[in-house]
Write a structure and sequence with these properties.
Elements lengths: L1 E4 L2 H14 L4 H8 L3 H8 L5 H12 L4 E4 L7
């Protein structure tokens, strides 16, 4: 699984897909991440903080791309 993230909606979709692939509910992921379930739902809908929007704007201006992918296991 690999996602090219160009905006908050792309990031939200990547998080939602990864959560579902892990068989987790929003509540489970939110608890493990230390955030509220409504906040996580907000992120999955692509509505995030101004800080994230700034980061994405900087990447766009610098013609850089954020790629989200599953980490490799230590032995593989």
């Amino acid at each position: 699984m690999s996602y090219s993230v160009r905006n908050a909606a792309d990031l939200g979709a990547a998080i939602q897909d990864a959560r579902r692939a892990a068989g987790m509910t929003q509540g489970e992921l939110a608890e493990r991440a230390g955030v509220s379930r409504p906040y996580l739902a907000h992120v999955e809908r692509g509505r995030t903080s101004r800080l994230l929007e700034l980061l994405l704007d900087l990447l766009r201006v610098l013609d850089l791309e954020l790629v989200v992918r599953r980490r490799h296991s230590p032995d593989g």
